[in-house]
Amino acid sequence: MFDFSTINPDEIGDGASIDLPTGIYKGSIASCKATQSKNTGRAQHEFKVSITEDPYKGAIRTEWISDPTGPEDKVKFIWIRVFQSIGVTPEKLKAAGTVPPEQIPAFFTGKPCFIDFVKGNRDMGQYDKLRFITAKAYEVKKAQAVALAASGTTQVAQEAPVVANVLVTPPVAAPVAAPANAAGASNDLLAMLNG
How far apart are CA 129 and CA 139, in angstroms? Predict the structure, then answer.
């Protein structure tokens, strides 16, 4: 017997089958959960990001980010970018101090975010790459893409990335709202990071 009782509708559907070209996108973190790397056994978090803008609205892509193992672990810079992507400033993050790993899923799930996505080529052994970016980086890259599309240029200098998904109207970053307090999540921490 198959047990489908644990399925989260926000994590499935046709989102994974929607072809998503390389580009920068606004999204929402549909889910975030603690997992363990199958390759290294290291603790990590799995993020499922649902694209929130047309024509790719509903496309879902997944990224796994290792948990820091100590204060000198460089993965913390990836985590800082994830926090910045949902609108948390480095100052607020520093003021919050230590963030317990068990509070991560409740804090991130449902938050709007910005991503830079590079479509992989499975035939070539290249997997999709998803990188969280700030709202400012999103705005700058979108403006570069719009300018590129308007100029009709087919080649771009390295500092101006080619972006497949081009919107003509500039985006407005959504305000960051506190998620519902899930089991084990501290209202103080959530309030500090959202405040």
Answer: 20
